[in-house]
Amino acid sequence: MDNAASEQTRAPNFQEGTVYHYSYDAQVESGLSTVDESGTTTQTSDNGQQAVTRIQSQVKVYFASQRRALLCMTQNKFGQFNEQRKQTDSNQCYEPLSIFEPKQIPQEQRQKLELCCQFDYVDGVIVRVQFDKQDEPWSKNMKRGVLNMIQMNLRQNNAQELATEQSRNQQEGNIEENESTQMRDQLAHSFTIPEVTVEGECQTTYTINTANPSKHCTQKSSDESNKQQQMPCSFNVTKSINHKQCSRIGDISAGLQTEQPQARCAQ
């Protein structure tokens, strides 16, 4: 995420005419569950029996303009697991693809998944999606899942605001410039907000770290002083969606806003 100006830190700064590459990993688990009197959901089986589907894909996103983009899924791999499984660390998002049984999908379905879709990207939020007229619901939903992760809603909490606050506190405390720079280099911030996804309005956690602590860029402060300050040039942003904490599911059952199907686009 570029940090060339304060306004650009509020969302990833995608460049017109540029292709961005993503590695997409997803794991879908299903199994019977029960709800006790307290409302807690638990698995009915104590042996960890679940059906698990694992998905891995290389995603290409081409921005024809800063607002309009094209998404394509390539090198799609699937795995399945239907036997007893040991319970792992709950903080782990997915298991390695190597432990799953490879699953081959028909060529026709693979071609559907490889159809591209277009979307509008405004201030870090996806506001409109257009699918190929030949695409099918299951394939569209998988692409919506990818769009969930590309959407970066950093407007309420962002690295620039945090770094500015740190800089102000350091100046008030008369901390030396080298100590101030060291603290900015250690910038790490995490926050959780409700965000509209395919599943509904879900709790989404963002974690922001400096990508290159030793490299800084000069920019104006976000307050009225317009003073020059040294800030990290780029950030790494990790996004995690908790699908177990979602609300308003029925209100957006159709997923992200969709327009009429588009004519088949060049891949």
Automatic annotation (TrEMBL):
One of its GO terms (molecular function) is lipid transporter activity. Residues 211-230 are annotated as: Disordered. Transmembrane segments: none annotated. It holds the Pfam family Vitellogenin_N. The keyword Signal applies. Gene3D superfamilies: Lipovitellin, beta-sheet shell regions, chain A. Signal peptide: none annotated. Keywords: Signal, Storage protein. InterPro entries: Lipid_transp_b-sht_shell (IPR015819), Vitellinogen_b-sht_N (IPR015816), Vitellogenin/Apolipophorin (IPR050733), Vitellogenin_N (IPR001747). Residues 211-220 have a biased composition (Polar residues). Residues 14-266 form the Vitellogenin domain. This is Vitellogenin domain-containing protein. The lineage of its organism: Eukaryota, Metazoa, Ecdysozoa, Nematoda, Chromadorea.
